[in-house]
Amino acid sequence: PDDLTPAEHQELENIRRRKQELLDDIQRLKNEIAEVTSEIENLGSTEEKKNMQRNKQVAMGRKKFNMDPKKGEGLNKTAIGDYLGERDDFNIGVLHDFVELHEFTDLNLVQALRQFLWSFRLPGEAQKIDRMMEAFAQRYCTCNPGVFQSTDTCYILSFAIIMLNTSLHNPNVKDKPATTLVPSSV
Q1: Which among 10, 78, 99, 140 has the fewest CB atoms less than 10 Å away?
Q2: What pLDDT, on a 0 to 100 scale, did the predictor assign at position 47?
Q3: Comparing C-alpha atoms, which of 80, 166, 158, 84 is closest to residue 127?
Q4: Is the pTM value of this prediction over 0.70?
Q5: What's residue 73's pLDDT?
């Protein structure tokens, strides 16, 4: 406007400059808000996508592992036991990773064995059981330092408990061990 004094022109120019600065600040804040909102949305959807992808992988792995639709939804415990007991390097690695998933801290040995053996069925082959009990004993001793002097002690006791349990409860075992320590003649 031509009817303004030089001081008013200067004031008007200051107002326009300040207005532009404020508009720039507003735009910068809008951009930051949009960026943060996008990150938050992606975080949630990324987590959901990961969960969905993991669920699909588990379902596919279950299907491939069982290869028998009659077994139902869960993994076949016998097949898991056979797989974990194999001596291939990859299977042994899977066994050790599987054992690491178990938390045995503050459990007595029998409780830890029950927890461990709940998720699969022991194979019939002694060498496979041996590998599995060795991995179990190492993990148990890591979770409970000082309970046993060595992992060998834990291993031998664990193996003995399993053999005793098998002798007592397997119908194929004809001569059951005595269930009392007192001789019958006393």
Answers
A1: 10
A2: 67
A3: 84
A4: no
A5: 52
**What is the SS3 assignment for 147?**
coil
How many other C-beta atoms are found inside a 10 Å radius of the C-beta of residue 140? 26
Please say if the pLDDT value at position 69 is more than 60: no
CA atoms 84, 89, 94, 95: torsion sign: positive
Q: Give me the catalytic one of 21, 39, 47, 125.
A: 125
Answer whether 108's CB lies under 8 Å from 147's CB. Answer: no
Alpha helix segments (H runs only) across the chain: 6-66, 77-85, 89-100, 109-118, 126-143, 151-169
Yes or no: say if 102 and 115 are a contact pair by the CB < 8 Å rule.
yes
pLDDT tens digits for range 148-157: 999 999 999 9
Which residue type occupies 71?
Answer: K
- Which of 171, 87, 169, 98 is CA-nearest to residue 129? 87
CB 47 within 8 A of CB 83: no
Q: Is 35 a residue of the active site?
A: no
Q: Are 131 and 83 in contact (CB under 8 A)?
A: no
CA distance 177 to 186: 18
With 60 as the cut, is the pLDDT of residue 67 above it?
no
